[in-house]
Amino acid sequence: MNEIVVGIDFSKSSIQAFQYALQVAKACGCNLKLVYVSKKRDKALKFIKDDKGMEISIADNFKKLIEAHSSEIKGDICHKVLHGKIYEEIANQAKYTDAEMIITGAHGMSGFEEFWVGNNAMKIITYSEKPVLSVKKTYDPQKHLIEKIVLPVDSSSETLQKVPFTIQLAGYFNAQINVLSLFGSKFKNTDESVEKNTREAMELIVASGLRYINEKKNSDNFSKATIDYALKRNADLISVMTEQEYSSNNVFVGNYAQQTINLSPLPVLSFRTKPLPRTHNEQE
Predict the structure, then answer these.
(1) Which terminus of the chain, N or C, has less C-beta within 10 A?
(2) CATH for 3-136?
């Protein structure tokens, strides 16, 4: 891994994301690019307000932050100040550079901070072509290394797209991958697809030489089942796709990834679904 983009506005949530990114960079030996995005070009691009309402130079904030932590990783820490839409600028910094991942702060359903509301976090996740790791401000990255990653597998064709990068990240930490096979109890006809996807995921993990386990869960709420399982197994990270196929009736309320990100106290690694190659029959 060459570089990680970290969205930062010096709020508590974004500082937690930066602290988490430091842990990942230590393991990966990669660079960190800290990105601040302002909606305005002028004064707002140079100053922010602290908790007491006093204006502070963004440049000075970055200087202090980088000087305090640059010795902790082998790679470099740099920063960039941009203007525009937060989610577009951060996602594009990863898209058009050597960055392989974005790490950003996230909030639960009731959380709110200026600029870094859950809406912006979700927009980064859905807009970015690179994996996005979201961290709650209540999560302590100093106490939790990545030792166990939960990898939920469902019946969708896209569910396997997250497996290679999840394996790559797990390799840096020698982490165990917990493959959770998710079965919708009302839709037995999808069981075969879940089993097939599980086998393919397991083959890749076995080839990597990483530790793993596989467990099964029947549920009508995949988000809750995934989070409950992750907490039960003392996992440190959940890996999900941003779009999932559940059923033609859409019986699951809301988006699986959004529910998981909002409700999970653990960091969540999200992958935007990529279009699958069309078959010969589909092209005709």
Answers:
(1) C
(2) 3.40.50.620
